[in-house]
Specification:
The structure is a homodimer of 197-residue chains.
Chain A (H helix, E strand, L loop, with lengths): L14 H11 L2 H12 L2 E2 H8 L3 H13 L3 E6 L2 E6 L8 H5 L3 H21 E2 L2 E2 L6 H11 L8 E3 H8 L6 H10 L3 E4 L2 E4 L5
Antiparallel strand pairs in A: 1-3, 2-3, 4-5, 6-8, 7-8
The structure holds a DNA duplex (30 and 30 nucleotides).
Chain lengths: 197, 197
DNA sequence: TATCTAGTTTGATGAACATCTAATTAAATA
DNA sequence: TATTTAATTAGATGTTCATCAAACTAGATA
């Protein structure tokens, strides 16, 4: 459990990495270990004795804390002595929780845009009008294609049955889906392609 | 999932509560939710759409975030609109991780002391000498008694067999254990009393 | 009032995790 | 070299958790 050691967590890092840090902190025993190590560096066996935990379990916890860069280990004699490491803990919580704007924001505005488009064109699950702009049409199609089960085939009639729930102009929708590559047609049989994301 | 709402997390709070906060933060989806809500208050359905998650799942996540006081909800029309709440995120990480000294420290020094005593008097599992100070003798006895199985009876001879592994002066050890109430003797039969912790 | 929409709760399922015991590795001493 | 001690790894087990579908609750509108 030592290979992935000590990435310093730059502000640019992704949500998974940030969540890993919090997961490492999200256990009472590990918080206690940090408190104990803060007082003075300690080795696993000592911690096991104090915490009344199996040595293997303590090793497990220490591994997690070291993995996210909260602890560093130094080997002396038998012992693997752990100490607090890095300035990670001096950061305000918000610095770890919130992504720097370019990162999430872009992603989010993207989503927000999708939302806005869908909200504009759908009403009560029906497609009120077919978007004239290609980009918006794409968003609508990506939404509609999710009504088709992956791993299943549809006759053209079945495709139409799905589409008519959205809009009467099933021909335009069907052609759009195929043109966008969201449905494939082979021998008059339709099938949904790669999952939406 | 709304009953346990919004405890402000005083610095005096215990490790479990602190761990709960970190657990709530220890999931990428919940971090994303916080980032999204930071931009503007949002309701569950919107988040479900953006995150491409089931509404029930989003509700679950929002519940956890609200439970530890990171979000607050306000009801408007249909919607339950969530916003960031409290100054929790402005705290430096260390303020949440580290207990105020009186709490852990006392507990810990206690343990550290035990450790030191045991290390002083035991060598390779044997008791090198019998402590003259009562307090230290107690610590040693509490350690030794763990070699006795609870829920089992021992003859005096069996007791001695266990004790001689620690030190040849079995009589002193045996008497000490009984005096300390760690072993009880009834009709020449010994039995361990309440579990160590 | 009947219907629609958003939210929550419940139950089921699979994944992740904490913990232990046992086996293994590695360092230190007899 | 053989034994002891600390640490890690592997395997097993029970618990917690994330997720979804379905049932249910409660505003809002027709």
């Amino acid at each position: 459990m030592n290979e992935a050691a000590t990435q310093p967590l730059t502000p640019e890092q992704n949500l998974e990495a940030r969540a890993e840090l919090f997961k490492a902190l999200g256990h009472p025993m590990r918080l206690l270990i940090l408190n104990l190590v803060k007082m003075k560096p300690r080795h696993g066996e000592e911690l096991a004795a104090i915490l009344n935990l199996n040595a293997a379990t303590v090793s497990h916890h220490l591994g997690k804390l070291a993995e996210v860069g909260l602890l560093t280990a130094e080997k002396t004699q038998y012992y693997q002595v752990y100490s607090l490491s890095g300035a990670l803990l001096d950061k305000p919580l918000r610095d770890v929780v919130f992504m720097p704007q370019p990162g999430v924001a872009a992603q989010v505005e993207e989503d927000a845009y999708r939302q806005k488009v869908l909200k504009t064109f759908f009403k009560y699950g029906r497609l009120k009008a077919i978007p004239a702009q290609l980009k918006k049409f794409m968003i609508v199609l990506e939404h509609i294609v999710q009504e088709f089960e992956p791993e299943r085939t549809y006759t053209e009639r079945e495709v139409n049955q799905v589409l008519v729930e959205f809009n009467d102009d099933v021909a335009t929708l069907r052609r759009g889906l195929v043109d966008a590559g969201l449905l494939v047609r082979e021998n008059s049989i339709y099938r949904r392609t790669a999952p939406a994301e």
